[in-house]
Amino acid sequence: MENASKALVMAGSVLIALMIIGALLLMVNNLSSYQETDKVNTREAQVIDFNNQYETYNRKNVRGSDLYSLLNRAVDYNRRKSTTGTGKDEGQYLAYEPIIITFDLNPGGGKEKFYATTESGFNHLIKDNNYTVSDTSNKFRDYIYERVKTLEDTYGSDSLNNLVIGMSKIFIDTNNSSDKEKKVAVDTFNIASKNVSVSNFSQLLNHRTAVYTYAEYVQFKRAKFDCVTDEVEYNPKTGRIIKMKFNFTGNFE
Questions:
Q1: pTM for this entry
Q2: Where are the domains of the chain?
Q3: What is the DSSP string of 47-114?
């Protein structure tokens, strides 16, 4: 009888031990499941936060100045976070796909929409219809910045802005007799703040080109672009935006 009681006690102890072990295993599994769920939720929140930075541009009537900022954002991300990043940045081990931003100044071809009508018949600053930024350097921004900075250092940004604002049309058709007064205004300007004056015909042409070039810079910032929503792409694994395209609408602010 005593042996039977001991056996029951031992069996009960084993059962309790098994129940405790089972409870501990269940707690561990639940904790692991909770942690995994938490990781998933965190990743999803990070993807949403990331995409929101770009989704704000997924609309109509995006200003050129905003598009300019978007290009800088994409390049910074590509350098620091994507596979195209350098060894000194996070990109090499985070291995996210780089973002590609394209914009078309003449969507559909045909007659040019974004252009300057000059006697030379071509633009001085914005010379191509299509631009793509997909790497760790914003060649479009760098090219424009270099040219614009040189002009501002030479003539002064206020003086250039005043000349551009003073035109009833940003771009001047010098072959049109109705634009003669505007042509003369551009031909004969004298920027005293920078001691720039016209002393010969060669200088005259250089000054006019400077105004035309700066006008294109102002024009680009005022231009309106529509994001092509159907061509916004996401990485199927990470859910992050990887491609956006914008078309010039032909309108300005």
A1: 0.71
A2: 1-55, 62-252
A3: HHHHHHHHHTTSSS-EEHHHHHHHHHHHHHHHHHHBTTS-TTSTHHHH-BPPPEEEEESSTTSSS-SS
